[in-house]
Amino acid sequence: KKQIAVIGLGKFGSNLVKSLSKENCDILAIDISEEKVKDVSDIINNIIVADATDEKILEKLNLKSMDDIIISIGNNLEASILITMILKNLGAKKLIVKANSILHAKILLKVGADKTIFPEKDEAEKLAKSLISSNILETITFSENYSLIDIKVPKLLYNKSILDSQIRNKYKLNIVAIKKKIPFLTENGETDFKEDINILPSSSDILEEGDSIFIIGYKDDIIKFKNL
Amino acid sequence: KKQIAVIGLGKFGSNLVKSLSKENCDILAIDISEEKVKDVSDIINNIIVADATDEKILEKLNLKSMDDIIISIGNNLEASILITMILKNLGAKKLIVKANSILHAKILLKVGADKTIFPEKDEAEKLAKSLISSNILETITFSENYSLIDIKVPKLLYNKSILDSQIRNKYKLNIVAIKKKIPFLTENGETDFKEDINILPSSSDILEEGDSIFIIGYKDDIIKFKNL
Ligand SMILES: Nc1ncnc2c1ncn2[C@@H]1O[C@H](COP(=O)(O)OP(=O)(O)OP(=O)(O)O)[C@@H](O)[C@H]1O
Ligand SMILES: Nc1ncnc2c1ncn2[C@@H]1O[C@H](COP(=O)(O)OP(=O)(O)OP(=O)(O)O)[C@@H](O)[C@H]1O
Fold first, then answer.
1. CB nearest to B117's CB, from A123, A129, A197
2. A82 and A167 share a domain?
3. Whose CA is closest to A225, among A165, A181, A179, A178?
4. Ligand 1: which residues within 6 Å by Cβ?
5. Residues A107 and A188 in one domain
6. Does A15 sit within 8 Å of B120, measured CB to CB?
């Protein structure tokens, strides 16, 4: 089960906790404000009121055991930069940090953030594209009628070619891509897997157990297929 | 040319103006703070320092001629609600309003917003999905290698069937959907067009002038195709 820590429960952090609470993962949330902590206490249990710039507290929490740590402290640029540096130093596996500006994002990446998120900029760019031209993502994925999802190949279709699977003719779905796990030998002779995404699947390609297919179709057809 | 007004130049509004300035549209921006207006003065010309809750000012600006008006005033909930109501009353065509909470979004829709945007929540949900499982949108559209775009059918392929167009074999692209403009007769005997999106195109479908095709492929192949 994934271990995820969220530091800072502003609009971004609290909404992240809400979304994650619906998934299969363990969540730890930290905020300096008792009120913010109280606001999420009905959806998660592991919450702490603390000043996350306090290195001693961060050390005690053993956050390096977390798979992902998200720092979403907004307006106080120094706080998010400082916390990033402390956690990088303590051996955090993956640091995802919310930025307030391009410059802030550059600094965060320099001091140890693995990835930065700038919600207002990302959403502004997305809105700009959809205002100017029909944007495929708007049209297809947020359209009332269609859905674009990835799903593990259902057992019923194991080892069938795309053509034989009749995904198109019988299930009325369009396969956009297939993701396969390709085994390879590592330097120490162990088998590891890398993901291979084929965005030009041909009708003779075989659907195997463990493959994921990216399919597009009308929502009802997608639901029927998911229930196979 | 699209006419777009942006009211409020916080992180969202200013980034929206930056993105729109790269597109083919006329932009009008309004903010109460001279400093915010000054910050965008190097990228757009049509900017006003004004309190957008002032109905007289909004009336003078004749904003109902705008194709889209984006209200991105954050922390002052009453201001964004009031401006939405005023502009709805003045006959605004399309009002897109930034919300700070689910409740704020509901109120905005009630008082006339056509669409609300909650960047922190949208990005939090997207991040939550990508932390837990591989997300197709992350994989395909934001992947380093692939691109999913819609493009008008190039002249070279007018009236060819999908099979004959060789989009797959020659151009190495996967057609995800075709958008056609279907003419129909309105009640007053005029011809109008509605958009029809076929998400299950078959190899015998004909590509016609004016159609848009949604294609996915490696970025280099997409670029080659765009240059046809
Ligand atoms: N040193 C700190 N330690 C822990 N939490 C902190 C610290 N400083 C600020 N916070 C918390 O971080 C949260 C987010 O900060 P803030 O609201 O300033 O950012 P924001 O960018 O406006 O956030 P959002 O856009 O997500 O609403 C707040 O709930 C605040 O209490
Ligand atoms: N009545 C008003 N008329 C015009 N502009 C206004 C008015 N009130 C606030 N603004 C402007 O709206 C902008 C955005 O407001 P604010 O920064 O409070 O929101 P925000 O939600 O934090 O924004 P963002 O998330 O986009 O950074 C500010 O630049 C501010 O000057």
1. A123
2. no
3. A165
4. A 8-13, 30-33, 36, 51-53, 72-76, 79; B 120
5. no
6. yes
Give the C-alpha distances (Å, rounded to integers) separating B151 from B155, B178, B207, B223, B225: 12, 10, 12, 11, 10
Query: Which residue, A211, A204, A154, A148, is CA-closest to A178?
Result: A211
Q: Which of B16, B124, B174 sits opposite A19 (nearest CB)?
A: B124
What percentage of chain B carries pLDDT values higher than 90?
64
Map tokens 């952090």 to a residue.
A13
In the numeric block, which tokens belong to residue B58? Answer: 């909004």
Q: How far is the CA of A154 from the centre of ligand 2 (A)?
A: 49
Query: Closest approach of chain A CAs to the CA of B160, in angstroms?
Result: 20
Give the domain range for residue B113: 2-119
Nearest-CA distance from A162 to chain B in Å?
15
Same domain, A220 and A158: yes
Are B61 and B104 within one domain?
A: yes
| Closest-CA residue of chain A to B75 | A11
Q: Using 50, 70 and 90 to split pLDDT, how confident is the model at B133?
A: low
Chain A, nearest residue to B172 by Cα: A200
Q: Please check whether residues A152 and A59 belong to one and the same domain.
A: no
CB atoms within 10 A of CB B147: 20
User: pLDDT at residue B147 above 80?
Assistant: no
Q: Do A38 and A110 reside in the same domain of the chain?
A: yes
Contacts for A61 with CB less than 8 Å, ≥ 6 apart: A5, A28, A30, A48
Q: Rounded to a whole number, what is the distance in angstroms from the first to the last CA of chain A?
A: 26
- A14 with A116, same domain: the answer is yes
Handedness of CA A146, A151, A156, A159 (dihedral sign): positive
* pLDDT of residue A44 exceeding 90: yes
**Is A190 among the domain residues?**
yes
Has residue B129 been placed in a domain? no
Distance A176 CA to ligand 2 centre (A): 41
Q: What is d(CA A33, CA A75) in angstroms, rounded to the nearest whole number? A: 14
Same-domain status, B167 and B76? no
**pLDDT at residue A133 in the model:** 60
Tens-place pLDDT, residues A100-116? 999 999 999 999 999 99
Is the pLDDT confidence value at B115 over 50? yes
Q: How confident is the model at residue A93 (pLDDT cuts 50, 70, 90)?
A: very high
Contact between chains at A23 and B212 (C-beta distance less than 8 A): no
Give mean pLDDT, residues A62-83. Answer: 94
